[in-house]
Amino acid sequence: MTRCSTVPRRTDHVVVVGAGLSGLAAASHLCGRGRAVTVLERDGVPGGRAGRLDVGGYRLDTGPTVLTMPDIVRDTLAATGASMDERLPLIRLDPAYRTFFADGTSLDVRTDAEAMTEAVRAFAGPREAAGYARLRAWLTRLYEVEYAGFIAANVDSPLGLLTPRLARLAALGGFGRWENAVGRFLRDERLRRVFTFQALYAGLSPRRALALYAVIAYMDTVGGVFFPRGGMRALPDALAGAAADAGVEFRYDTRVTALERRGRRVTAALTADGDRIPCDAIVLTCDLPAAYRLLGRVPRRPVRLVAAPSAVVVHLGVSGDGRCGADGTAHHNLLFGRAWHTTFDDLTRDGRPMRDPSLLLTRPTVTDTALAPGGRQLVSVLAPAPNLARARLDWDRIGPAYAEELIEATAARSGLKMRMEDVLHVITPADWRRQGLLAGTPFSLAHTFGQTGPFRPANLPRTTDNAVLAGCGTVPGVGVPTALVSGRLAADRITGAVPS
After folding, report:
1. Angle between helices 480-495 and 21-32 (to 10 degrees)
2. pTM (2 decimals)?
3. Is 369 exposed, middle or buried (0-12, 13-18, 19+ CB in 10 A)?
4. DSSP one-letter code for 5
5. pLDDT tens-digit series, residues 120-140
6. Residues facing residue 9 across a β-bridge
7. How do beta strands 376-385 and 58-61 pair?
8. What is the 3-state secondary structure (H, E, C) of 295-339?
9. How many other β-carbons are positioned within 10 Å of the β-carbon of residue 495?
10. How many Cα atoms are found within 13 Å in the side-chain-facing hemisphere of 336?
11. Which helix (H) or strand (E) holds 413?
12. What are phi and psi of 351, to 5 degrees?
């Protein structure tokens, strides 16, 4: 294991700013390693971007809806001595996704190797089934090489990556392009979409994203997709509850406005209520610009930071069981348009709403009926959208009409009966900006080469000796599993890494 820099001097009491997933993970690991921890959260509940909203008996998740890599959740809970089986029982979703294509075909994405191979065989023939088997083996090797050495480890500089793992990653084609890598195994253009659409999570087109980010496709199509009973809000609730029971102090409705400093060290967090909370070290999990404002300095970079695309999300309460044909829609559904490459151009190059959108349709009440009133179901439609740095669109003006377009497109492709009258809540890039998020996107920084690994904004700011960053704006990046890993990496910076 490469030795990495840590916070010098005593770190007995740590303040964590933010009770999002990275903050909860940092607090859990720090508490488990003997530190006294105080978490300061501006909202009244934990979760951060994993938000929630209750409307007329519906329990909405306003943040992430796809949960992968449950072992990372298990390890986070175990840091405080908690059991995931007791705190957060998870349901494996089968299929992980149901995919619908513009030509009228559909495919269930299953994580069992034999079941998925047979599904691909029936969908696209034996050659593609054999290609899928090879792709699955490649994705697995990619994950095994990447996770411990690159995703889940602190690195002080690019030189820290010069290990045998880097050579293995290069040999696997990790520094080529994601789309080309998948194309080595699959010829069917529909199947290629299934294993490259995740590039949007990295904020890039699969033509531009490095193949090493195909590890995201491993996480959901091989590792599996899960759902906690009670909705995604159950995840931060479980983490916060376990941490509080272990001794972490939580102060909700507490907004940090400034940091008290003595030389290069932060000595206290100052709140809007006039409180002063002293600390030996501090973990900042707020969005990157807000963290830099608190620290009083933005690090110099040779190129400007590039934000990922944003999203428009429409939440609806729909009557009936919403069945689509004989099979119906599943918990997670991918509704692909005819366009593909031009869709990414719309988002990342031209700065316009997708002309032929590909959509994520989520029906959590398929798995947990308690999330909606009796006889009703909860539905959400997510459409990627350009961020506000790419396109200064007036979403407050165009948002309602665009939401109606999305509802019509979703109804036509899925068979669900949906109307504007069913809308419970709409979130646009303007709403994300009002939450203080960079460029109006919940996905933070895109994973360009210059914002990958050691080139991503560091979690150990050079200007302050005892401050550490966590969250999707720093290492390792965007997503629920990586947010939890980011919190653990922040704890490692304070205590030193704990051997696994």
Report:
1. 40
2. 0.97
3. middle
4. -
5. 999 999 999 999 999 999 999
6. none
7. unpaired
8. HCCCCCCCCCCCECCEEEEEEEEEECCCCCCCCCCCCEEEECCCC
9. 19
10. 27
11. helix 395-414
12. 65, 50
Query: Long-range contacts made by residues 253-261, C-beta under 8 angstroms, separation at least 24?
Result: 253/41, 253/42, 253/43, 253/44, 254/40, 254/41, 254/42, 255/42, 256/17, 256/40, 256/42, 256/286, 256/294, 258/294, 259/294, 259/295, 259/296, 259/467, 261/296, 261/464
Residue 321 confidence class, pLDDT cut points 50, 70, 90: low
- Residue 294 token pair: 């608190």
Query: What's the CA angle centered on 264, arms 258 and 268, to 5 degrees?
Result: 35
- Whether 255 contacts 294, CB under 8 Å: no
pLDDT tens sequence across 388-397: 999 999 999 9
- pLDDT, one tens digit per residue, over 308-320 is 999 999 999 999 7
**Which ranges in 42-163 belong to alpha helices (H)?**
70-78, 84-87, 113-124, 126-146
Task: Average the pLDDT over 454-473 and give the result.
Answer: 95
Other beta carbons less than 10 A from residue 404's beta carbon: 14
Number of CB atoms found within 10 A of residue 220's CB: 23
**In contact, 254 and 42? CB cutoff 8 Å:** yes
Q: 311: which 2 tokens?
A: 């999203």
- How many of the other CB atoms lie within 10 Å of CB of 354? 23
Task: Write the CB contacts of 370 (distance below 8 Å, at least 6 apart in sequence).
Answer: 59, 230
Q: Taking Cα atoms as reference points, which of 403, 389, 477, 469 lies closest to residue 432?
A: 389
Cβ atoms of 290 and 258 closer than 8 Å: no
